[in-house]
Amino acid sequence: MTSAATLDLTEKQRAVLERVDRRVPIKVIAAELGVSEARINQHIRALKDKFEAESLNALVEAYRAEPDYEYKGEDPYRKPIYRNSQLPDEPIFPDQGSRVDPGEIVLSDAHHVLIDVPWSGPREPVVVPTALDGENAVLLRLAAMIGIAFGVVAAIILVVSAAVSVGEVLDGKASIDASSQDS
Length: 183
Fold this sequence. Notes:
This protein is 45% helix and 0% strand. The protein is an all-alpha fold. α3 packs across α4. It is elongated, with a radius of gyration of 38 Å. Keywords: Membrane, Transmembrane, Transmembrane helix.
């Protein structure tokens, strides 16, 4: 086994080695150092190669056998602070950070949560509106198609008649009598 002083460990490798010495899980090491688990595994592989160790236990023993090794662990009689890494470090609403004390209930704590009741079924995108779906879906869809067709035909007739009327007014064929406005 070679000496850590002669190995020239990087800061990240030294940080990983200290955490492995404290038996910290790889996920936690990755979260603390802000890198991926794959990168931590690469550091551990490089450390195993440098220390010529076959396992993590052998790596820790080789690290502890170094002359400049100091135990930096926590007091074994104290419970470590539990930290849930799934919770955000900053507040969900950044503008509330300094306004209220932690734990104080204020009106602005309420926010909308889009959760449906369990019996309503999952929300999925639908192609057909729910009004045109159901037991009589064929009749309702047929009625909607006929209504839309009549509406399109009526709109075309109105546009054509308006265009003809405007054309007659501009050509001078149509006029508005003043006598018809008096009554």
